[in-house]
Amino acid sequence: MSWRPAVWLAAAASLMALFMVVFEQRQPAPARRLALDDAAIAVDPAVIAALTVADGTSVVSCVQRERRWYVTRPAATRASEQVIRNVLRAVSATRIHERITPQQVRARDLTPASYGLERPRLTVGVTAAGQVHTLAFGDEAPVGNLVFAQVNGDPDVLAVTRDVIDGVPKRAAGWEASAVMPETLLSASRLEIKQPGGFVQLALKDGTWRLQQPRSVKADDTVVERLLQGLHQLQVESTGPAVTGVDLVAYGLGPDDNPLQVTVGSEGDNDAVTLMLGKPVQETPGLVYARVSDMASLCRVSQGVVPLLSVRAEDVRDRRLCAVRPGDIAAVRLQDEDHRVELQRTKGGWRIEDPVRGRADLAAVGQFLKAFCGLESLGFPEPVSTNSAAVAAIAATGCRVVLSDRPFAPPGTNGAAAARTTGVWTYRFPAASTGNIVEVTCNEERAVYRVRAADVARLIAHEDAGVRRSFTDPLAYLDRAVLELKPASIRRMTLAYRGREEAVVRDAAGNWTAESPPESRVVPDAVAGILQSVAPLRAARVETLSATNLTVFGLDESATRLTFTLSDDAGLQKTLIISTNGAASGVYGAVQGQDAVFVIPRDMAARLTRSMVVWQ
Q1: Domain housing 112
Q2: What pLDDT digit, counting tens, does each position of 132-181 carry?
Q3: pTM value?
Q4: Are 501 and 584 within one domain?
Q5: What are the contacts of 384-391 at 24+ separation with CB within 8 A?
Q6: Within a domain: residue 31?
């Protein structure tokens, strides 16, 4: 076979291919449309660390440091967080609606300048994970409310949404913060206020504010949060001259003017912000000059912030003697000159551990804790040493309240554990006062509180169902439950009084019938009243735990006896002894076999001693 035909065929194929290429290039190909959700720059706004915007005549650069945005060009100042968020959202929201390749541009006898992209009117650059992404914007697209753009220098011309064009501030000043303090203010953990009257330093510790200077004591969280809210709402009313080169003395902001200033920051935050307040603005009443440490210019702010920040240490102190909540207290020790009582929280409630052991009344313990934790100071004397003569005198002759957020160490525990101070608060105060004010000391806080004497007096002694109780009397806290019987378990009741006896029994169907006297019949209301009263039966107060002579209380043979026979305990019986003696608040009662005497309200005693049968 001759090689000449093969050569001619190859040459012909090459000429045909060249013709097709030239022909295709001369035909304008249709633009390729992309899905509406295609992002021009697919970057999460949350990871963007820097932003640059050039509009042809000026350049604005911003950078994020310590969770806060700053303008670095044209002048170093804090940026408006809201403006930054708006621009970054606009960048991420920019969507591609049309793509025009360089071949298509040439086929239309156009150039990038035809789309306004040879000299872009706006260029936006964002930096994320060390990579810079740019969006250059040109002319308006003829249809669709779109604008032509190029991404990252790619020669393709894009028709994109105009979110960025509409969101970028028109002036460089529009990038600057209008809020005096940054948004991170509300998560601050340090606050310092300097003024001619003194210095206040506060720190957030374990979720609560503490005053650190001029002394270490509890702060009032509500007052501190009100300060922070006031600062958060403070706005720049107008800007003044640039800080660089200005005569600060003329504005009352010089170093010798000792202006009112506040510094806000967080632990480990190197970008704490300081606000200094100067002279009033003469031409605009109601405003004062201010300097903010991370702003490039002086500004004017509302004069209303001056009284807000003109606080003394006493103004921000927590006036509560005990900042711990009653529900967080796990142990209580109360002591006066002669007596002591110790209470401890358990899974089932409160118990008295000393000087007697027994279940405590939840309401009584809760009322004491609520009353004590509700005490507030009227003022704060100078702090005292816990070894001072004043504290020693109170310790010798006064009262003591010890609260703990954990159980007390049992006897015999080593000294290190017994000396624990974290979570323990020891308060001392005199047993009596001749004035209107009582001074209460707290050992752990090394603080003195001035408290109304009447409030302390009500705490030391209170009315308990007609009896005056000391706060160290264990009977004031003893559980008032006398009987806790389940009505369904009672199968027989016997009432004995004045030489008479009556008894009723329950049959298998749950019906009550008279057993004694034989010919009597049941009074249903009386039986129902007894059953309701003993489920459970609670006393008005406990009179004594160790009665040696029941006759004194009228609980001898002359008293009424109500005996319950229980079906679920193999005939176990409980006998309630009820006297006619007592006080206005009730009559005395006891459970046979126990030494405790208690007071039963008169109306309840009447229900318990009502005749259960009608005698024939």
Answers
A1: 45-175
A2: 999 999 999 988 889 999 999 889 999 999 889 988 998 888 888 889 98
A3: 0.68
A4: yes
A5: 384/441, 384/446, 384/448, 385/446, 386/441, 386/443, 386/446, 390/439, 390/441, 391/428, 391/441, 391/443
A6: no
